[in-house]
Amino acid sequence: MRVALKAIILVPVFVLLIVFAVVNRAPVTLLLDPFDLTAPPLAITAPLFIIIFLSLMVGIAVGGVGVWISQAIHRQSLRHHKREAERYRAEIEELRRRSDLPPLPQAPMIG
Length: 111
What we know:
Elements: H1 2-23, E1 27-31, E2 43-47, H2 48-70, H3 72-98
């Protein structure tokens, strides 16, 4: 079911991207120096679709890095709570061992 749903969504998207690339294949010049418009030292001439696709890829990469950095606090908190839970479990096991009670069943691993 998931594969069919992916295909239903992705096939039209890829067809649209191919049509976009074919229609926008004329070369354009991307000027990266706003102060020298006559003979810019930083200029790229490439088909428009390549410039747009590269811009999208860079934007996705920068966004992914930003999300990864912003979620660092959650990953750190998860590691802290995991260590704390393991410490408490070891303490409970020690107390159960001292009082001659059977050990706790194995806890499922999360994360």
